[in-house]
Design brief:
Strand 6 and strand 7 form a beta hairpin. With about 170 residues, this protein is an alpha+beta fold. About 30% of the residues are buried. The strands form 2 sheets. It has a 5-stranded antiparallel beta sheet with strand order 1-2-3-6-7. It has a two-stranded antiparallel ribbon with strand order 4-5. It contains 3 helices and 7 strands. It has a single domain, classed as Peptide Deformylase. It binds nickel (II) ion. Nickel (II) ion binds next to helix 2. It catalyses: N-terminal N-formyl-L-methionyl-[peptide] + H2O = N-terminal L-methionyl-[peptide] + formate. Removes the formyl group from the N-terminal Met of newly synthesized proteins. Requires at least a dipeptide for an efficient rate of reaction. N-terminal L-methionine is a prerequisite for activity but the enzyme has broad specificity at other positions. Its EC number is 3.5.1.88.
């Protein structure tokens, strides 16, 4: 396994729309293993393939405190969503910045596992946020897109400052 490089905003490749996965082979399994390793190494709760510059519909997540409940969703589609929640989100492509985003409280998602079997996942609360956030990445969308231009500008300026300070 190996960790993959994570693209950071405003890298234009984060705007790429991912293509469906059609081949479920050893290469895909290796890629998913690398995504888990990358997510855990970066202390993230979710990671979309888009963020490691692979433009296929694959996301991984683990919202557990123990970091022992890995989930992979391939070709995820939202079947149902309802309710509303506001949650403070962060993103591995936006180091050090966090912002409140409003999303559905509950989602029902159909996806495939690494072997291509269909799975249906129902999630609520933080896991539902995570799945919606990562699915956005696969569509070339990022969480700051939901913010007002003013708020977004402030956060991105802060991120740029931190980047310069740590360079
Ligand atoms: Ni993200």
């Amino acid at each position: 396994m190996s960790t993959l490089a994570i693209l950071e905003f405003p890298d234009p490749r984060l705007r790429t729309v991912a293509a469906p996965v059609t081949v479920f082979d050893a290469e895909l399994k290796q890629f998913v293993a690398d995504m888990y390793e990358t997510m855990y190494a970066a202390n993230g709760v979710g990671l979309a393939a888009t963020q490691v510059n692979v433009h296929k519909r694959v996301l991984v997540a683990d919202m557990s405190d123990e970091r022992n409940q890995p989930m992979v969703l391939i070709n995820p589609e939202i079947l149902e969503k309802d309710g509303q929640q506001v949650y403070q989100e962060g993103c591995l492509s936006f180091p050090g910045i966090y912002a409140d985003v409003t999303r559905a409280l509950h989602v029902k998602v159909r996806a495939q596992d690494v072997d291509g079997n269909e799975i249906v996942v129902e999630a609520e609360g933080p896991l539902a946020v995570c799945i919606q956030h990562e699915m956005d990445h696969l569509a070339g969308k990022v969480f700051v897109d939901y913010l007002s231009p003013l708020k977004r500008g402030m956060l991105l300026k802060r991120m740029e400052k931190q980047r310069k300070a740590s360079a």
